[in-house]
Amino acid sequence: METHLPSLPLMKIFSYLDAYSLLQVAQVNKNWNALASSDVLWRKLCQKRWLFCDMVTLQLQDKETWKQFFVYRTWQEHSKTRANPRDFTYKEIPLQYGPCGYACYISGCGITRKGQDKSVVCMVNSKNTISTWDVHKSVITWVSPEQPASIKLLTTLPEMHIAVTVDIQSTIKLWDCHNREALATNILESPCKSLKAVITKDDPIVLVSDILGNLYIFRIPDLHLISTVNVLPCDIDEIYCSPQKKWVLLSKKQPYILPKVFYMSSLLRTSEFSAPVSTLLEISLCQEAFWTPRREDRLTLMSRSGCSKITKFETYDMKLEEFGNKIIVKGNSIAGFLLPYYTESLNWFGVSDKDTIVCSTEFSLLLFTNNGHRLQTFQYFSETIVRLSVDPVHVIVTCNDGSLDVYAWEERSLLLRKCYRLKNRRHLSPRGFINKTLCDDVSIIQLMIDGHDTWFLMAYALNICS
């Protein structure tokens, strides 16, 4: 005799399931299929997987449901993991004047249902112009006027197709990469050290740090100065924003300078907070940091002792607490481990949304839980690892000859799966090196300099069927 549970408790039970399990229970009967296909359930899964769903009103196409969006967007994300080397077209653009090492994606995030999306890269060259390059069509689509001073830093906001530059005279400019002239201009009081553009729940903003340890926050698109805070007693090496931009971590690779985490709203809403809300994390010589994808409050830091060369990983959960009439920030250490000295030092690392830590030595790719349990090792013998790129779906290893190994995070385990190798099409001389490796849903780009001071932007564009 078939038993029918009431809809309300069933929906409550289904709300604890992941997408795979929800698809499974939908096969039981028509009633379960209708409940398991509910927009309420699938919208929550979309919000959990892609935090941008909380920040924008997503326009679903035609009569598309949240379930359909989830399934198709997941398919989009994994387009590169399903591919093989034959599915990529190699593109190359020589940069006559050199790009000064700056190249960032300025396009959105991947394929659309109509197959019309594309990868667009923004670049700076030593002729003091910035330009955009359509990777799939191999054409320059926009060039700025020549600037009066050398451009020192570049960042982009792909969601708005905006680029931000800072030159050696501390002039910050905002570009929409369609018009010849800058949208807005402002001038910093001291030389800039780091730069990042993000979309917060309040406004799109630009975060700029200077050599004196000041953090400036400018509003997009007019570069109105929202706030200025002295955050460290020295210059800031890196700015790390959490996935939904609730937190911002500022760090400096010095023994006595501890990384500092700020509550972003306290930097933006100056009328609501008497002072910025922050906390120091008790980990010195921080080499690199990584916010856990799809987890707004979790942060892992890598530090290294200069003498013993022992690498330490520490994972924190950030939280707000009320203390009297004050709001304070606390960083609770939830996991950590020491990695003994390797003959090759650890240079790069990243974290999956399941808290798996991936890191690279010169000759190996290592996977650990955040408590230090070894999960996997991928050995490299005939080449060395020079770069590591980590996102919620892929891990891309760049080898010293310019070849790329593409790995994918397993959906239902903590492990990595090696997908394929993309061989470098351009000979890399002993004096040459790969300056940067980046990827989006439909392409992978590399910035390379050969032994004759000639720069190349190389791209592997995934062939998209309309």
UniProtKB/TrEMBL annotation:
Pathway: Protein modification; protein ubiquitination. Pfam families: F-box-like. GO terms for cellular component: cytoplasm. The keyword GTP-binding does not apply. PROSITE patterns: FBOX (PS50181). Residues 1-45 form the F-box domain. Keywords: Ubl conjugation pathway. This is F-box and WD-40 domain protein 27.
